[in-house]
Amino acid sequence: MTEERVSPLRQRMIEDMRISGMGDKAQKAHIRAIKDFAAFLGRSPDTATPEDLRAYKLHMTENGITPSTFNVRIVALRFCFGNLAEGR
């Protein structure tokens, strides 16, 4: 059995979600959203710029992402990058 390597960014995000009392389903949705963003970027999300975030929003809009999925992903990005920016 192989164990998935957890990046420092993901580990930090998992810890921050636990600290905030986020439930398991919400944690999984946030992680999925960040993975999707990383796939869009083609690199680690911690290297993203504000322009990358804007391009991702446009990409989701142009590809017919439902409003609820769009919102879940934006909330996840705000959670992740807000905590990084605040040094939490």
TrEMBL record:
Which keywords label this protein? Answer: DNA integration, DNA-binding
Please, one GO biological process term? Answer: DNA integration
The Core-binding (CB) domain extends over: 4-85
Q: Which domain of life is it from?
A: Bacteria
Q: Name one GO molecular function term.
A: DNA binding
Keyword Mitochondrion among UniProt keywords: no
- InterPro entries reported for this sequence: CB (IPR044068), DNA_brk_join_enz (IPR011010), Integrase_recombinase_N (IPR010998), Integrase_SAM-like_N (IPR004107)
SUPFAM superfamilies tied to this protein: DNA breaking-rejoining enzymes (SSF56349)
Q: Write the protein's name.
A: Integrase
Q: Which organism is it from?
A: Roseovarius gahaiensis
Which lineage?
Answer: Bacteria, Pseudomonadati, Pseudomonadota, Alphaproteobacteria, Rhodobacterales
